[in-house]
């Protein structure tokens, strides 16, 4: 759950999203939502990382918790468009 940080490399995503580095369930505050107009795409990550990756207009990747409501809404919206 250290995946709140904006990451610029897929290798860093695997390192930071690793379950071994995650805090215990329920101890993290919710991931702050990105402004929807910043997000242009999303990716499901490998089994090593349970997070969703959002791609911003500026090419940055942001890792977010897929159980959060805003993440699910963004994914649904992106799939419809």
TrEMBL record:
UniProt xrefs under Gene3D superfamilies: 2.40.50.40
GO biological process: immune response; inflammatory response
Coiled coil location: none
Keyword Signal: yes
Keywords for this protein: Cytokine, Disulfide bond, Inflammatory response, Signal
GO molecular function, one term: chemokine activity
Signal peptide interval: 1-15
Pfam families: IL8 (PF00048)
Domain Chemokine interleukin-8-like: 28-78
UniProt xrefs under CDD domains: Chemokine_CC (cd00272)
SMART domains: SCY
Gene Ontology CC terms: extracellular space
Official protein name in the record: Chemokine interleukin-8-like domain-containing protein
Organism: Cercocebus atys
């Amino acid at each position: 759950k250290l995946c709140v940080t904006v990451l610029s490399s897929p290798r860093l995503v695997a390192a930071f999203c690793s379950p071994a580095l995650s805090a215990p369930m329920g101890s993290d505050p919710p991931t702050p939502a990105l402004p929807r107009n910043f997000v242009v795409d999303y990716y499901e990550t490998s089994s090593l990382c349970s997070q969703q990756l959002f791609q911003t207009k500026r090419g940055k990747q942001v890792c977010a918790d897929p159980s959060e409501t805003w993440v699910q809404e963004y994914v649904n919206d992106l799939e419809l468009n």
